Amino acid sequence: MADDILKNIPLPADLPENWTSQQTVAPTGAEVGMDEQHGYNYLMKQVNNAQKAAKALNAGKADSVDPHDLFIPITGWQTDTEVAEYPHYIDITADVTSTTVVSVSIDPASANVAGKAMLVNPETRTGAIRIRAHNVPTAEISARWYPIKYGGQFYGDGSIYSNFLLAAHPVGSIYQTISPENPSVTFGGGTWKNIAQDRVLMGASNTHPAGTTVEAGLPNVKGTFIAALRDGFTDDSANKITGAFYENGITTGEDNYNSISTDVGIPSGGAPFGFDASRSNSIYGRSTTVQPPAYFTYTWLRTA
Q1: Which residue would you say has higher pLDDT here, 217 or 70?
Q2: Verdict on whether the full-model pTM lies above 0.90
Q3: Strands (DSSP E) along the chain, which ranges?
């Protein structure tokens, strides 16, 4: 709301602060060789804009707080084990829903009684505010309640626990669990999408921005060799081994030739060539498996 007001009533905050003595004031500033900001018409315009914005902001805040009287009695309390430290609770009729977030302010006169009762932040149910306490109060507590808005919307199921969990997992957060239950149930709100099935999570970079995916793959393995079935060969590039292939025998004493001619002491028709993928790409040979040890979980992305 405040952003909309300031868009309609711009406050550039560019009034000049470099006046010097004996300068002449003029309606637009141009009459005395100065810029628009040094004219008194511009000055008065911005003063009026500031007053208009202040009034609009003041009028707009009226609907953000609506206090209501709340009296917490000493009778009607119930007990459960849902929250171990605060086993006593009472539901007080109020115009709220299960998604309303409220705050309760204790009157100073009841502060001592409330302190001994050790009240916790309130929860909400449809048509009622649930007050929890460590001890049942010994006298009626006078208070006021009012709805709280965060960013223009209500969060969660109205409980302090839901509010905390959702605040800790804003839109764009990743949540992992071994439970298949949607986090909107666990957290009491938010919209969640199950993602990353059969994928590992990796750190984003300029090459791979957050939210993008890449398919599985391995680097290629390459190599060449040419078998020269002739007597006598020249030391040219066509007869040299490249990539993953290599000569695995004693011939000329150099493993970069791949001739199988009798001139290098190898019977014609056979040659001891080897294959080693690490000669093509050093990533090979570093591990005995492509699949690293893994622990599988459900991965959820909060989208709203």
Answers
A1: 70
A2: no
A3: 68-72, 78-79, 88-93, 102-106, 119-125, 128-133, 141-147, 174-177, 192-195, 223-224, 242-243, 245-247, 273-275, 298-302
